[in-house]
């Protein structure tokens, strides 16, 4: 890590810890655990579309792409409301008077597009029963870790990540909200052949967005003209989305997300982990990774 980065990290004040509590061995906020029965009994519908990811794996990006597809590239419609109001985050519970994801979802007319970070074994069973379509996006562990670390520094709703060194260990141990990255990507990967799940990789989207959007179109059984496709590619590029207040979370108060610490949309580039991992950390991480991913058919790219 560069000296400059180290200085930045030392200047910050720690933020107050939100309460956390495990649900079935997975770390969650206490607000989620208190509402767990309601979340587990959430009623999905056959025409729901669920966007599922591990935290910081390209969720908002995928939401914007899907929203633009559903609205035939109509920008005004896509800027009708914040991402979090357009696509309810089903397990996210906030203190009143703020809306919980469940309330938003239950009050939303069909067809709904919903969002979750839940590991596959904790997805409300009605999604399987109703055979709802699910798009899952996976991102390589090292970039996910870096992005989640910075997100935890600026988002007061998440536990304080501590120092970079501490966080690397916390992440490896799966002691972060929504649990282990390793179990998450593998669990959803194993489920993809039994259910209507389109499994995408963040790095593939970065490499060739058009190709990946075409996979989404096929999955959603939707056709759009070439000019609409090009418009979607342009408006869901990182630089354009970073300027879009309906997608970049800047409308939230700094008491929730402090973008001066780290912007919600930070870099969005595969390979940024190299600016943070020391050689020793990287070697240790790789060793641990081999152990945890042993026997899996998944392959991730840590740069493109």
UniProtKB/TrEMBL annotation:
GO terms for cellular component: cytoplasm. GO terms for molecular function: 3'-phosphoadenosine 5'-phosphosulfate binding; alcohol sulfotransferase activity; aryl sulfotransferase activity. It is found in: Cytoplasm. It is an enzyme of class 2 (transferase). Pfam families: Sulfotransfer_1. Its EC number is 2.8.2.-. GO terms for biological process: 3'-phosphoadenosine 5'-phosphosulfate metabolic process; xenobiotic metabolic process. InterPro entries: P-loop_NTPase, Sulfotransferase_dom. Keywords: Cytoplasm, Transferase. Residues 46-296 form the Sulfotransferase domain. Belongs to the sulfotransferase 1 family. This is Sulfotransferase.
């Amino acid at each position: 890590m560069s000296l400059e980065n180290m200085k930045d990290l030392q200047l910050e004040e720690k933020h107050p810890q939100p309460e956390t509590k495990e649900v079935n061995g997975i770390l969650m906020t206490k607000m989620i655990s208190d509402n767990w029965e309601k979340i587990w009994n959430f009623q999905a519908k056959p025409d729901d579309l669920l966007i599922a990811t591990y935290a910081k794996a390209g969720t908002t990006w995928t939401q914007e792409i899907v929203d633009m597809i559903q609205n035939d590239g109509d920008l005004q419609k896509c800027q009708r409301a914040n991402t979090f109001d357009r696509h309810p985050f089903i397990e996210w519970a906030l203190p009143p008077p703020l809306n919980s994801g469940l309330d938003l979802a239950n009050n939303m007319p069909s067809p709904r597009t919903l969002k979750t970070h839940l590991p596959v074994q904790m997805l409300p069973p009605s999604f399987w029963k109703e055979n709802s379509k699910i798009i899952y996006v996976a991102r390589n562990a090292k970039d996910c870790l870096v992005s989640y670390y910075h997100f935890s520094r600026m988002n007061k709703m998440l536990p304080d990540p501590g120092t970079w060194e501490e966080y690397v260990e916390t992440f490896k141990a799966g002691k972060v909200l929504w649990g282990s990255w390793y179990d998450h990507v593998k669990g959803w990967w194993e489920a993809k052949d039994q259910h209507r799940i389109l499994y995408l990789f963040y790095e593939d989207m970065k490499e060739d967005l058009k190709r990946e959007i075409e996979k989404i179109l096929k999955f959603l059984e939707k056709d759009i003209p070439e000019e609409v496709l090009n418009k979607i590619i342009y408006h869901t590029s990182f630089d354009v989305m970073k300027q879009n207040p309906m997608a970049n979370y800047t409308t939230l108060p700094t008491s929730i997300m402090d973008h001066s610490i780290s912007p919600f949309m930070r870099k969005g580039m595969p390979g940024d982990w190299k600016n943070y991992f020391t050689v020793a950390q990287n070697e240790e991480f790789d060793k641990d990774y081999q152990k945890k991913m042993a026997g899996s058919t998944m392959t991730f790219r840590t740069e493109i």
